[in-house]
Amino acid sequence: MKPCWAKEKPPEIERRIKVNDGAYNAQFEYAQNIITTSKYNVFTFLPKNLFEQFQRIANAYFLGLLILQLMPVISSLTPLTTIIPLVAVLLVTAAKDAVDDIQRHRSDAQVNNRTSMVLRNGEIVEERWHKVSVGDIIRLKNNDFVAADLMVLSTSEPHSLCYIETAELDGETNLKVRQALEVTSDLSNDHAKMAAFDAEIISEPPNNRLSKFDGKMQLKEQTYSLDNEKILLRGCVLRNTEWCFGVVIFAGRDTKLMMNSGKTKFKRTSIDRFMNKLIIGIFMFLVTMCLICTVACGVWEAVTGHDFQVFLPWEYFIPEAKGSGSTTIALLVFLSYIIILNTVVPISLYVSVEIIRLAHSLWINWDMKMYYDKKDTPAKARTTTLNEELGQIEYIFSDKTGTLTQNIMSFNKCSINGKSYGDPVDREGNPQDVNENTPKVDFSGNPYAEKNFEFYDQELLNVVEQGEQQVHAFFRTLALCHTVMPEVHEDGTLEYQAQSPDEGALVSAARNFGFVFKSRTPSTITIEVNGATEVYDLLCILDFNNVRKRMSVIVKKDNKIKLYCKGADNIIFERLAPACADLKELTMHHLNDFAQSGLRTLCLATKDISEMEYAKWKIKHHAASTTIENRDDRLDEVYEEIETDLELVGASAIEDKLQDGVPETIANLALADIKIWVLTGDKQETAINIGFSCRLLTDEMEEPFIVDAESLEEVEQQLRTALTEVKEAKSGSKSDHVISNGATTYNGATASATVNTDAEMFGEFALVINGHSLAFALKPELEGLFLDLACLCKAVICCRVTPLQKALVVDLVKRHKQTITLAIGDGANDVSMIKMAHIGIGISGQEGLQAVLASDYSISQFRYLERLLLVHGRWSYLRMCKFLQYFFYKNFAFTLCHFWFAFFCGFSAQTLFDPYFISLYNVFYTSLPILVLGIFDQDVDDAHCVRYPKLYVPGIKDVLFNLRVFTWSVIEGLISSLILFFIPYGAFVYSVDSDGIDKADLQSFGTVVAATLVVAVNLRCALDMSYWTGFNHFVVWGSIIYYFCFQLAFYSEAIVYDYVGTSFEVFGNPATWFTMLLTCTILVVPMVVWRFYQTSVNPTLSDRVRLRQRMRKSKSRGRDLTVHRQSTFRRSQRSIRSGYAFAHQAGFGELITSGLNMKERAKEIVTTPVRLTKMLRQNANHVPKKSPTTEGLPVPGTSRSEPGSKQPSPRVSKNLEEPKKSQSTSSVDSVSRPEPSHRPEPSPLPQGKTIFVERL
């Protein structure tokens, strides 16, 4: 929100910059390079925070009450009763907001105080990022973050090339290349030339297009075109480049990274929004009661009070006439009752809510089971206002790269000449599962072998050493057909710089099997085969693109020309020679096996080319490469001519590893009726395989609906066709559930009557939609159709999507479904989605901190999302709902006693209770038990929350606190107030002492009702507690004892007060204690009976699981009685093999053949070697050893997990839980289901015991 006095800046049409001319650039008031996500500063905190707080309806309401109480004419209560709690609320909320904003300031400072080397007065000086301005020249060194959007001027590499990693922008960890203009590359590393550089740059205004930049540079009356290949964006990291100079084009909030971050939205929970509506309704109820009292007061004053002024005289300003006087008094009484009855919504409610939310945030921060020790990263709640909404999530929108996967590739299997390699076998030749004890192939004889490379089939190395011709052709293809760049360190170690991790994994595999790619020039490729050097003349690179889905190289050795090709299986198969038909069938069989294991596959082929054929083709190629119009299309046509009649060599299979526990997490969240949508920038084939590997897609599902049309009409037709088929299938579908003994059973327990399963979940369908089709589907005319189809599907995958499209998909669901959404990602490309969702979660992974800084919660691994939602989210929602139900109950019971008393005091606004009791009721007498309930309570322990994900469903359905529940709380409070008032009234109205003196004075009667009220509501709170500790007993019974002690002390003669002696008189009367016992019995016993009846006759799933928890020592275990729906509809017949596993854009082919990136051709002085960055591949199949009885448990005595978390952990319980298999080697695209863990036979249950069934 801009200040009203701020000058409105006109929209920017174009940007004009003069390099090294700060005075010229300052006139345009371009944004400085400072990032501000905080809301306040020292001067604006108090006024701005107060303004925001009084925008809450409740705070404004209490401020109005305070103003009324300052008027003695209408107030019978001291203003302190409102001032103290109101100030406390404002201070607590302000302190919480200050803490949150301090954290934002620290995060901002962490980024803004990074240092860059900036050219100042001809010298390079160190400056903090926030002091960098548009037009400044910055010097970057290897592995530096780019401080702002820069235009490249010169670099240390030949022809001013540089390499960047854009993980924070698009989630891709493969390197991209940028190149400076030739005219600026001459500036080199000369500071004097840089200082004298005075070009003018004219560019487009700030925008969020990451892949496009339009501009021009004017220098010495010459104009040079600028495009995206000349730009380094903020958030990128300079890689494998010793130094680079650039001039700042966009800074701070104008950078493309920040323009893609979206606006920060003020997030409030659904309970908060519902509470605002309730407050309006409660206020109307309050006004209704006050109107009743007002009318009754007017009637009483007219009928009785006017003639009774000798005893109760009217105030001097009241008209003497009966009608006008009675009306005036009635109007004043209306305002008085507004003050007296305002406690139906006490201000302490908001203080308590803030305290409970803060405690819930601390439980998340302190949970050692969400602590990732490898990176020393705990889970962190970056906000304290959204915890209970974690227990109501229905839609999860997840990124893929770095969120679900590790983005680490490993070579696992291959098929060569019709034989499959990679499956480990024992001595008898039987296949084995890979585990810790599986022997690995020994590559120690290869000096270039990588220590972290793992392979388990010794036979492949044997045939390599035996010189098998086809096997050598396979690895020779991998060693030659690529665009990888080799780098040799000073210590002699060889590292590869790959355009994509897929390509790097294949070249590394060839290296480990003895086919080492050593070096390259624009015209040669050098490899070493088992110690012998082979040099090939590189004639041409036929580079990869998304249409070709393959790449080839044409090389020459010993006067023989040969083409090596690798690509997607369907693309290669179409270009094979007829003689390869039999081998094709065998290879296709192996490819299907690999795909079923979730591996990413591609085929390899070769072709011998004669000198004459190549000479003719080279002429066509030269003509196509030099044409101006449709150059790419012409080149593709020429490539097609030479890539025919190929000879199939084999196929490779690589694994993109999932993060540990991802499949189990997704499967468990799906059982909780949470719908998961994956929004990824990957290709369609890869996206589908990822879905299978993480169990988002399963074999039980129907064939996924593919929406990939290129026009609005075609997209609409595909969506309508799919929607029709789904509806037709669902109309004839049968229930998945087992009806056993009259009860509907799923996920190991009987369903609650209040939780119904949606019909939409009966059929398991999936939708896959491409980014270009999604652009049409999100248009207003199709968004409803798209959403209807997507919501009928169990899984949705959106592939090739932009950051903005991710946010639009989230917004679409938010606007139309009225459900709670969660977005999770780890890169800057996920920021807009994270900010758009109700809950944003950032994964503190390898893609920087942008997602974490924009998130509401941060975790280090996707698997922790399961515990965050099913445990912390569910507990927070449960506790908050219990707290609100009880709070409204106890305050209606308290406040309505005043209303009933009005009928006995002539509606004079006389209070029943002592004013100090009114002030302290919600602060001291009844606050601690409900706070303990709201902070510590749990119906079942954390292990069972994870084991029975259906326990999460009530939060999605919002059944624990809604209008029905609130209404019941009000009715219960109303009935309780009647009992609390009229039983003591009946007991004391005619009571006299032994001397015949009336004992029914106002002070005594009010003290009896107050004492009974305190005891009754604290006992009622005790009934709501599901989890008892010594602390619970202390606060419940301690609150009751504290009340009596305080009353005896406060009403004693030591303190001069109107109620002196009342407590000793009242509490010394046996009738008081009998009345209190009778009243509490009438209030509590019916509730105990009702709950016992409900638990016994109509138990909820929570009741049954809690019973099972109490029976955990029993050895009985349920059997899986779930019957899966047999599919009879559109069973998938497609291959799920990955189409092509390379980068999403063209490779380095053109750079290699042009020689621009070859240092051998650059005549430069040798400088300090560059410190190279390489993505180290983790151990592909290493499973860390864990104790089966201590896995995931905190160290005794040091645990900071939430008090009361039951041991053992979800994966450890000896009696109740089957151990979960380690999935550290799970791969992306794995569609096979893990074998169920061994489950002992259930011991017989005693007759009459409840039998539980559970899903294996």
Automatic annotation (TrEMBL):
Active site: D399
TM annotation in the entry: 80-99, 278-303, 329-351, 887-909, 915-936, 965-990, 1002-1019, 1031-1051, 1071-1093
One of the record's GO molecular function terms: ATP binding
Short name of any one Pfam family annotated for the protein: PhoLip_ATPase_C
Membrane disposition: Multi-pass membrane protein
Reaction catalysis annotation: ATP + H2O + phospholipidSide 1 = ADP + phosphate + phospholipidSide 2
Domain P-type ATPase N-terminal: 17-83
Domain (P-type ATPase A): residue spans on this chain: 113-173
Ranges of biased composition (kind: Low complexity): 1222-1234
UniProt key word Magnesium: yes
Domain of life: Eukaryota
GO cellular component terms listed in the entry, alphabetical order: plasma membrane; trans-Golgi network
UniProt-annotated stretches for the region Disordered: 1109-1132, 1177-1256
Subcellular location: Endomembrane system; Membrane
InterPro entries: ATPase_P-typ_cyto_dom_N (IPR023299), ATPase_P-typ_P_site (IPR018303), ATPase_P-typ_TM_dom_sf (IPR023298), ATPase_P-typ_transduc_dom_A_sf (IPR008250), ATPase_P-type_domA (IPR059000), HAD-like_sf (IPR036412), HAD_sf (IPR023214), P-type_ATPase_IV (IPR006539)
Biased composition annotated in UniProt, kind: Polar residues: 1198-1212
Gene Ontology BP terms: Golgi organization; phospholipid translocation
Family classification: Belongs to the cation transport ATPase (P-type) (TC 3.A.3) family. Type IV subfamily.
Name the UniProt record assigns to this protein: Phospholipid-transporting ATPase
